[in-house]
Amino acid sequence: MNRSLAIIAALAALIVIAVLPLWMPPFYTRVVQLFFFSAALATAWNILGGYTGYWSFGHTVFIGIGAFASAHLVTHLGPFGSGPWSMVVPVLLSGLICGLFAAILAYPILRLRGIYFAIAMLGVGQVVGELVTNISWFQGGVGVFLAAPVPQGMPPEQFFYYLFAGLLILCLAVSFWVRHSRFGYALLAIREDEDTAMMLGVATERYKIAAFVMSAVLVGLLGAVYGYTVGYFTTSSVFRLDFSLNMIVFCLIGGIGTLFGPVIGTAVMLLLTQVLLSGFLDIHLLITGVIVVAIILIMPGGILGALRPKRRASASKAEPAAKVQS
Amino acid sequence: MSKTILSGRAVTKKFRGLTAIEDVEFDIPEGAIYGLIGPNGAGKSTLFNLITGYYALTSGEIRFFDRDLASLPTYRRNQAGIARAFQISKPFPALTVRENVRVGAMFGKPERTNFDIVTDEALSIAGITELADRTAEGLTVGALRKLEIARAVATRPKLLLADEPCAGLNPTETEEMVQCLRNVRERGTTVWLVEHDMRAVTSICDRIIVIDAGRKIAEGTPREVVNNPKVIAAYLGTPVEDGN
């Protein structure tokens, strides 16, 4: 019953997503496209940050690497076919490169826990950005071109709308699988108490790396496609601290560690910043900040956490004082 | 006597200059309930930490079914069949009791089975089936201890190391915990427990090992140990019936 309901809802959502851009004005198509992109990023971040408890403050590094990898692949080795299909190889390879980078990075950096991991990732984002700018081969300073092979007769915003919709569905599918698999239980156990998880037989090292790589690959794919949407970019347009922060904020607002929390958080925040506050450009950041603080104070578990009926804890019963037997 | 499940030879652990465990020997027969007692700081928890691999041995050898444990990392020792229930409960706080136990069921052994059945069984052995859907945070001390046992049992261990399972429990809860440990043994799991509650220890243990200042000072049946002058001097203070 519940299951068939979920399937019907998913099908309805798919149909709505498919027909929406056919009558929506281009501005809104672009807003929804941005929503898909941001929600997919947050969902990918959530696999590492939400399920595993490793908060990365530098996930933009994978957007940057994904975008630059695609541009260089196309420039030096391309084209990979013609028309929209020519994106497939560079985008997939870029995801792969991000995965490899994450796997190598994971070895030293996942030994750090909590705030130290967060700060280290912040550093990684900065350092890689600097390298891409200053090593002239990467051309991060002058910028690189990545022409989008938009199909003839299709507005570009529609094309990318569908691409990002597909990627969001992919991210959600991966996140759903993770949450309900044995792998996901390992990640939750690591988040809750890594030492105890190890003591219960969880090969923590391996699972952490897997979650990190998985998250990096998804963000890398998104970064590559993002590169195509902008067409020309420098280091500062893809290695962006606000990308990293948005992933975290959107997850916090919607409900960190839940399947749909990142999507809901993104929807709420984009609705506020892009639509409702678009008339108050000079003060919209101020209002956004106040709203973020308010939501986090009122709903520490995010929107989904506040909606969920509280699972009864047994704290109400006073604990019997520890007695020494005599 | 049956087969030896766990044996230690000249087990020694030094932290810099401090010798925490020195030349301790033990042979735990399969199917037994063994006790480990000694004053605070005697090295009981350190010994358990050496067995689970949380600390590395300075010298000596620990064998589990004739297999040297030295090269096995912690999670592999668990998979080999050594589980531990902590003195200070370490639940996964945001997960439900059932999810907590399920982690043990899923990762305690490399092979896949029906995790639901293993989980339910472990919950019932520990007597916390009715708490299954509560989150672990906010459980009482007694319930948390049982959760520790359930989670350890779910890993389907051959040996359960229980670190002060009765500490801080009231007499009723202690009674329940003793019964719970008996249930664990019924299933064929060997139990080795550290415990200060002498009434609990003497009522369920087949044999007791006593350590003091890192050295083994006695081993025997509860009656022998309780009447051993060395044990009385080092630990009990006055004969019998008194915990502390």
Automatic annotation (TrEMBL), chain A:
<feature type="transmembrane region" description="Helical">
    <location>
        <begin position="31"/>
        <end position="48"/>
    </location>
</feature>
<keyword id="KW-1133">Transmembrane helix</keyword>
<dbReference type="InterPro" id="IPR001851">
    <property type="entry name" value="ABC_transp_permease"/>
</dbReference>
<keyword id="KW-0812">Transmembrane</keyword>
<feature type="transmembrane region" description="Helical">
    <location>
        <begin position="245"/>
        <end position="271"/>
    </location>
</feature>
<keyword id="KW-0472">Membrane</keyword>
<feature type="transmembrane region" description="Helical">
    <location>
        <begin position="87"/>
        <end position="109"/>
    </location>
</feature>
<dbReference type="Pfam" id="PF02653">
    <property type="entry name" value="BPD_transp_2"/>
</dbReference>
<feature type="transmembrane region" description="Helical">
    <location>
        <begin position="209"/>
        <end position="233"/>
    </location>
</feature>
<protein>
    <submittedName>
        <fullName>Branched-chain amino acid ABC transporter permease</fullName>
    </submittedName>
</protein>
<dbReference type="InterPro" id="IPR043428">
    <property type="entry name" value="LivM-like"/>
</dbReference>
<feature type="transmembrane region" description="Helical">
    <location>
        <begin position="283"/>
        <end position="307"/>
    </location>
</feature>
<feature type="transmembrane region" description="Helical">
    <location>
        <begin position="54"/>
        <end position="75"/>
    </location>
</feature>
<feature type="transmembrane region" description="Helical">
    <location>
        <begin position="6"/>
        <end position="24"/>
    </location>
</feature>
<feature type="transmembrane region" description="Helical">
    <location>
        <begin position="159"/>
        <end position="178"/>
    </location>
</feature>
<keyword id="KW-1003">Cell membrane</keyword>
Automatic annotation (TrEMBL), chain B:
<dbReference type="InterPro" id="IPR051120">
    <property type="entry name" value="ABC_AA/LPS_Transport"/>
</dbReference>
<keyword id="KW-0067">ATP-binding</keyword>
<dbReference type="InterPro" id="IPR032823">
    <property type="entry name" value="BCA_ABC_TP_C"/>
</dbReference>
<dbReference type="Pfam" id="PF12399">
    <property type="entry name" value="BCA_ABC_TP_C"/>
</dbReference>
<dbReference type="Pfam" id="PF00005">
    <property type="entry name" value="ABC_tran"/>
</dbReference>
<keyword id="KW-0813">Transport</keyword>
<dbReference type="GO" id="GO:0005524">
    <property type="term" value="F:ATP binding"/>
</dbReference>
<protein>
    <submittedName>
        <fullName>ABC transporter ATP-binding protein</fullName>
    </submittedName>
</protein>
<dbReference type="InterPro" id="IPR003439">
    <property type="entry name" value="ABC_transporter-like_ATP-bd"/>
</dbReference>
<keyword id="KW-0547">Nucleotide-binding</keyword>
<feature type="domain" description="ABC transporter">
    <location>
        <begin position="6"/>
        <end position="238"/>
    </location>
</feature>
<dbReference type="InterPro" id="IPR003593">
    <property type="entry name" value="AAA+_ATPase"/>
</dbReference>
